Amino acid sequence: MQITDVRIRKVEKEGKMKAVVSITIDDEFVVHDIKVIEGEKGLFIAMPSRKAGDGDFRDIAHPINSATRDQIQGLILKKYEEVLQEKE
After folding, report:
1. 1-84, what's its fold?
2. Residue 23: how many CB atoms within 10 A of its CB?
């Protein structure tokens, strides 16, 4: 699996959510609404989710294993840092 495109939409308002991201996989499949969040231990990604009937949020699309999640998160956070550098 290759992530062939990462598009960052920076969130300008104050808060923990810093950006909304879309990724393209193998030039064939797109995942929208991945969020870059500022947590207590630094930045991390949250996969697209929706609120279930019980009030909990459930991921709509997500990696099956931690290695894939780490790969996706690494690429997204690298691109996010590049976008921050361009703005300065």
Report:
1. Arylsulfatase, C-terminal domain (3.30.1120)
2. 19
